[in-house]
Amino acid sequence: MKLDLPPTPGLRLGQFGRVTVPLNEVASVRVPATAVVLRGQMEIVFVVENQKAQLRLVKTGKRLGDEW
User: Fold this and answer.
1) Tens digit of pLDDT for each residue in 21-64?
2) Is 36 part of any domain?
3) DSSP letter at 21?
4) Do the domain assignments include residue 45?
5) CA distance 55 to 63
6) What is the pLDDT of residues 10-19, one digit of tens each?
7) In terms of DSSP H, where are the helices of 1-68?
8) What is the pLDDT of residue 37?
């Protein structure tokens, strides 16, 4: 892909760059990294349901800072 950019200090003709273009949005739930328990290859979180802790297997995605 070629882009026409306005003159910008530090950019030179023919330079290489990478661009990420989001194609769609996906709903997700963010949790603190400390809430995810790793047991072997399993990723687990505990949720409270009817005042009891329930174990849930999850598949984590991209980690952003200290959140999954």
Assistant:
1) 888 887 888 889 899 999 999 999 999 999 999 999 999 888 88
2) yes
3) -
4) yes
5) 21
6) 888 888 888 8
7) none
8) 93
Give the Cα separation of 9 and 35 in Å (integer): 45
In a domain, 10, yes or no: no
Please give the tally of structural domains in the chain: 1
Tokens of 26: 């996906």
The whole domain housing 45 covers: 31-68
Residue 64 lies in a domain: yes
**DSSP code for 34:** G
- Contact criterion met (CB below 8 Å) for 45 and 37: yes
- Containing 48, the helix (H) or strand (E) segment is strand 42-49
Look at residue 64 in the predicted model and tell me its pLDDT.
82
Instruction: Tell me how far apart the alpha carbons of residues 42 and 55 are, in angstroms, rounded to a whole number.
Output: 12
The answer, yes or no, to whether residue 66 has pLDDT greater than 90, is no
